[in-house]
Amino acid sequence: MRPRSPALAGLLLFAGLVLNVPAAAQGDAKRGAYLAKAGGCVGCHTEERNGATPFAGGRALKTPFGTFYGPNITPHATAGIGAWKEHDFIRAMREGRRPDGAHYFPAFPYPSFTRIVDADLKDLFAFLRSLPPSSQASREHELPFPFGYRFLLWGWKWLFFSPGPFAPDPSRDARLNRGAYLVDALGHCGE
Ligand code: HEC
User: Fold this and answer.
1) Is the peptide bond before 111 cis (omega within 30 degrees of 0)?
2) Where are the extended beta strands (E) located within the chain?
3) With contact defined as beta carbons under 8 Å apart, do 90 and 137 qualify?
């Protein structure tokens, strides 16, 4: 919509500045960088070799269920998550679901990341958006039968996964709650 008169344009600008509408909706990439460190994202999402592009994927995670590869999470439109909207990212982290609705394997520690509060998820997304896009293709996981079937994860999630953000314990002080949040939600120390 284009305002027809300069007065209306001025009024809209004034409303935007005073109400701070657009700023509130945008994540803070700098804070997101700090949260990404606390969450150890780079470790699983970067290949283990000298000169590897951070967050471009390829790190092998060997588990009893097979080998998982952290995917490319740079903002490349096809190789990474460049086509994602903020709500796609929030759903991936909170519900362990791909934009197409398929379930993620819990090798991606979303059972902990689900506790990350919305404001922090927005900052993390803003940080990932600020990275240089890498065209490096994500590798397929190597999972023996039947672990490769994502639909089976529905059962696992039903048994073991309880989504939802961290709720501070009112009987504890703010520092204890902050520590508990960092350990449980971002640090995925319990996994
Ligand atoms: C312990 C290893 C590990 C850590 C730590 C980790 N991830 Fe991942 N992540 C994975 C794996 C493995 C997948 C792929 C899961 C699948 O294919 O089902 C994944 C998938 C993703 C996806 C979906 C990508 C896509 O293309 O669908 C996003 C987004 C993501 N991770 C973001 C993050 C962020 C942000 C952090 C830090 C807060 C993080 N990850 C930390 C292992 C990890």
Assistant:
1) no
2) 60-63, 66-69
3) no
First-to-last alpha carbon distance for the chain, in angstroms, is 49
Distances (CA, A) of 125 to 13, 36, 128, 144, 168: 27, 10, 5, 32, 23
Euclidean distance between CA atoms 151 and 148, whole angstroms: 9
Ligand 1 center to 23 CA (angstroms) = 27
- pLDDT band of residue 20 (cuts 50, 70, 90) is very low
pTM above 0.85, yes or no: yes
Pocket test for ligand 1, best of 35, 45, 157 (most atoms within 8 A of CB): 45
* CB contact set of 160 (below 8 Å; sequence gap of 6+): 106, 111
Domain positions in the chain are 24-186
